[in-house]
């Protein structure tokens, strides 16, 4: 009967809401998101959790990411009804720490204006030119690691490769790298739903410091441009200093807060699956697919979200303007309809690269080529230099849900090859 059905639907909703709270709001969802994701996936395509919708369905995530009836949810820039705007503005956390918002947070047509000049600096040719630098930086880091000794593979290696490369691309002096790592740690929690007010105010302070640093830096580059990407943007692009600042902040954050997680996760998946690592030693041409498989099975960016810009229908649901849809990229990447036996780590998986780890549609990751190159090179060089590398203690997770990864990987290097 009708009432029974309504009550059953309410129960599903409550249960999904509870699971979602556990997934996005604490240590359980950080330690093992996949158990909760699999429980939630059972409820089907698009379903309601407390104040939002959520999906773990690969094709639906992809469809929504490519659907221009959805935006990224900056209320000021979206033509919303008064009610939807009011609802959005009641969200406790400003979705973007910098003003004006970066390309990641804005919709068309503004998005193209912000992305185009940056994309021009990220062509496959420009990225290919970084290949030698990535090799050089990786070699230096590996040379500095102890022979047959203890090492933290995150602090000494995984986090250092991306910060070195992005710092060079943006023309920052080497001496500022540790400061950036610190700032990165402080602003990363902004992407999490369950952020505390304390963490939030720390993040806002860090973002003000970054903004001030970058305004100074941009002024310097304008007077004395180098041959880095930021100098070319400063001199060529039609962007205001504040917009340049926003793009540089995004590149800096996106450039190292994500790739560190990919490299860290790659180390753990490979060391825990020695058969797969042996296969790579025998067939190094499999390395690039192995990196896609890490991105698939353990997404470094676990979720993103979109907001309905109009009244719309999707997946049999009616969404009102302002409705938020949480897209679980990590869940999409383990959708059994697309990836058979999804929890199995298989570096030869044929469609591994169909993962949504870099998102899809107009906001698809601009640094994907760079991230792939850094991770492939770093993982290969590390495991070839130290063939007996092993983890010695359980890894420590970063206390973050969206930018998911490890803060410490205690290991023993073993003898050098
Ligand atoms: C956007 C993931 C590395 C620059 C994105 C998005 C994802 C992502 C999921 C889109 C979010 C959305 O659709 O809402 C990753 C992962 C990385 C990585 C998993 C490493 C493993 C990088 C690097 C850079 C970069 C190295 C640059 C140096 C960007 C930029 C955007 C972006 C600029 C915004 C694009 C836009 O809004 O048009 N990334 N990223 N990313 N990423 Fe990455």
Describe the structure.
This protein is an alpha+beta fold. It has one domain: Orthogonal Bundle (Cytochrome p450). Helix 8 crosses helix 10 and helix 11 runs antiparallel to helix 12. The N and C termini lie far apart (70 Å). About 4% of the residues have low confidence. The chain binds protoporphyrin IX containing FE. The site of protoporphyrin IX containing FE (HEM) has 23 residues, from helix 14, helix 15 and helix 19.
CATH topology: Cytochrome p450
Helicity level: 40-55%
Q: What is the multimeric organization of the chains shown?
A: single chain
Question: How many strands appear in the DSSP assignment?
Answer: 12
Q: Which outline best applies?
A: globular
Total count of domains: 1
- Distance separating the two termini: 70 Å
Low-confidence stretches: 75-81, 87-97
Helical stretch count? Answer: 19
- Give the overall pLDDT as a whole number: 88
The CATH superfamily is known as: Cytochrome P450
Major sheet details: 5 strands, mixed
**Largest sheet: spatial strand order:** 1-2-8-5-3
User: What small molecules does this complex bind?
Assistant: protoporphyrin IX containing FE
Q: In CATH, what is the class?
A: Mainly Alpha
Structural class: alpha+beta
What is the gyration radius calculated from CA atoms? 22 Å
């Amino acid at each position: 009967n009708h009432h029974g059905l309504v009550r059953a639907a309410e129960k599903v909703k409550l249960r999904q809401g509870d699971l979602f709270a556990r997934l996005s709001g604490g240590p359980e969802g950080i330690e093992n998101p996949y158990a909760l994701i699999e429980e939630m996936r059972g409820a089907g395509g698009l379903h309601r959790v407390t104040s939002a919708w959520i999906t773990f369905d690969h094709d639906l995530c992809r469809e929504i990411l490519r659907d221009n009836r959805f935006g990224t949810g900056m209320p000021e820039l979206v033509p919303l009804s008064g009610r939807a705007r009011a609802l959005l503005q009641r969200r406790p956390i400003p979705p973007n720490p910098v003003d004006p918002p970066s390309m990641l947070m804005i919709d068309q047509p503004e998005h193209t204006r912000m992305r185009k000049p940056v994309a021009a600096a990220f062509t496959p040719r420009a990225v290919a030119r970084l290949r030698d630098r990535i090799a050089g930086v990786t070699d230096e880091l590996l040379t500095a690691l102890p022979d047959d000794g203890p090492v933290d593979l995150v602090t000494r290696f995984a986090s250092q490769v991306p910060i070195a490369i992005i710092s060079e691309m943006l023309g920052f002096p080497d001496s500022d790298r540790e400061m950036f790592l610190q700032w990165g740690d402080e602003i990363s929690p902004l992407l999490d739903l369950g952020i505390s007010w304390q963490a939030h105010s720390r993040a806002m302070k860090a973002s003000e410091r970054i903004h001030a640093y970058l305004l100074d830096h941009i002024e310097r580059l304008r007077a004395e441009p180098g041959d880095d990407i930021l100098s070319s943007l400063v001199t060529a692009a039609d962007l205001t200093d504040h917009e340049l600042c926003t793009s540089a902040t995004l590149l800096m954050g996106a450039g190292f807060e994500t790739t560190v997680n990919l490299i860290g996760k790659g180390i753990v998946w490979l060391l825990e699956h020695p058969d797969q690592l042996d296969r790579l030693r025998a067939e190094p041409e499999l390395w690039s697919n192995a990196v896609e498989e890490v991105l698939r099975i353990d997404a470094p960016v676990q979720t993103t979200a979109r907001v309905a810009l109009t009244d719309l229908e999707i997946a049999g649901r009616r969404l009102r303007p302002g409705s938020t849809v949480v897209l679980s990229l990590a869940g999409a990447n383990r959708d059994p309809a697309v990836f058979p036996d999804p929890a199995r780590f298989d570096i030869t998986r044929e469609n591994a690269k169909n993962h949504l780890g870099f998102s899809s549609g107009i906001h698809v990751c601009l640094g994907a080529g760079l991230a792939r190159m850094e991770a492939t090179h770093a993982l290969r060089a590390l495991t070839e230099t130290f063939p007996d590398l092993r983890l010695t203690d359980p890894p420590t997770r970063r206390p973050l849900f969206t930018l998911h990864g490890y803060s410490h990987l205690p290991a023993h290097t073993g003898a050098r090859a």
